[in-house]
Amino acid sequence: MKPLLPLEDAQRRLIAMAKRLPSETIPVGEASGRYLAKDLVTKRSQPAADMSAMDGYAIAFDDRNGPWELVGECKAGSPPCLPIKKGQTARIFTGALLPDGADTVVMQENVKTDGAIIHLIEDPSPVKSRHVRHAGGDFSSGDIALKAGTKLTAAALGHAVIAGAGTVTVGRCPKIAIVSTGDELVAPGDDTQPHQIPASNDVMITAMLAQLPAQSRSISRIKDDIESLCAALESAQNCDIIVTIGGASVGDHDLVAPAFKKLGGKTDFWKIAMKPGKPLMAGQLGDSLVIALPGNPGSAFVTATLFLLPLIRYLAGAGDYMPVMQSAITNSLLPATHQRAEFLRAKVDSSGITAFDSQDSAKLSVLAAANALLYRPAQSPEQEKGAKVSYIAI
Ligand code: AMP
Ligand code: MG
């Protein structure tokens, strides 16, 4: 029997088949979750000039003991007020530019006003530059604000905007067709006969993609016959990725591989040393990459996490596209693994990580209760309770 392909080899081969999609320039307000296709260079310095971080009074540090005569007011959104001289101060508000002659701000809580005369009342005495945000203290014009491959999170988008960007150049969103197959499948919510089940994977995989820059469409519940499958695959060929669900094993009614081959698809790999998810297949059909996920919900979820999601992130331009591994202490003894890497549905919390007793990949009750996939590499020795293990948060 042909040995199974090690997980990391399969992941590498999938990415090696893929090409980053071309970039497009879009308004910042529409770029949430996208990946930068090139470095974002700042067009301005922040702050552009020295400004106050507090509501208070602008003074010269050399004239720090006061009293001062109030000669002006500086507020955010106005050009700097007139310069101050020795013995003078200006009222200043958060975000206002410091007037010439001032280098320090005294908090308003630390002064007493007597008409136009301002007295210092509090110890300690002012510290030079206290409550001043210096020009370029955050970044300077021409700096690289965000590197190519960065995900435009809420905070990254804020940074892009403050750096002067109105548009950003990002990788295009991959177009994805989700083709599910199985004579037993019925639409969500429809009545089922005992020999039927609702097509839960279609909605589940679509929901997984909703977190990513991806345009997906569902071609649901294709019958287990070659003609129907060929027609479904053909109709999906304008997509960057075709994901099939179900029918990926070697049973008489597992027709994804035969249909794929009939249309001239080229298999790159099939059968991975992992549990669940062994029947995963990947290849190319015309310009589309094809990933065939097994139909059991647990297997579909794990293989989508390890293959489909990284592929989408890669195509869309992500620098870090592989799943993030975290670590935790196992709350239970974990048996040794053999040829296959294992991904145990588990619950992680502040006490550690607990793998569920049942790892049946058909059980959605287990998958839905899990918030982590506990990773057990192939050929791992038994792990005692209390050992450090890796997991992927889901
Ligand atoms: P298969 O990979 O086609 O052999 O399917 C394995 C198991 O997953 C079977 O019990 C199928 O009924 C189930 N299954 C296949 N596709 C789906 C789907 N879209 N939603 C829910 N279960 C599915
Ligand atoms: Mg099937």
What does this structure look like?
It is built from seven helices and 26 strands. The strands form seven sheets. It has a six-stranded mixed beta sheet with strand order 7-4-6-5-9-8, with no helix packed on it. A six-stranded mixed beta sheet has the order 16-13-17-21-20-18, with helices on both faces. It has helices at 7-17, 154-162, 200-209, 226-235, 256-262, 297-315, 364-369; strands at 23-27, 40-41, 51-52, 56-59, 68-74, 88-92, 104-107, 111-114, 117-120, 132-133, 144-146, 167-171, 175-181, 185-186, 197-198, 215-222, 241-245, 266-270, 274-275, 281-285, 288-293, 325-329, 341-349, 352-355, 372-376, 388-393. It is elongated, with a radius of gyration of 30 Å. Strand 23 (341-349) and strand 24 form a beta hairpin. Helix 3 (200-209) packs parallel to helix 6 and helix 4 packs across helix 5. With 394 residues, it is α+β, with helices and mostly antiparallel strands. 18% of the residues lie in helices and 30% in strands. The relative contact order is 0.14. The chain starts with 6 loop residues before the first helix and ends with a strand. It binds adenosine monophosphate (AMP) and magnesium ion (MG). Magnesium ion is lined by residues 182, 246-247, 253, 295. Adenosine monophosphate (AMP) is lined by residues 180, 182, 184-185, 197, 199-202, 245-249, 254, 294-297.
Short description:
With 394 residues, the chain is an alpha+beta fold.
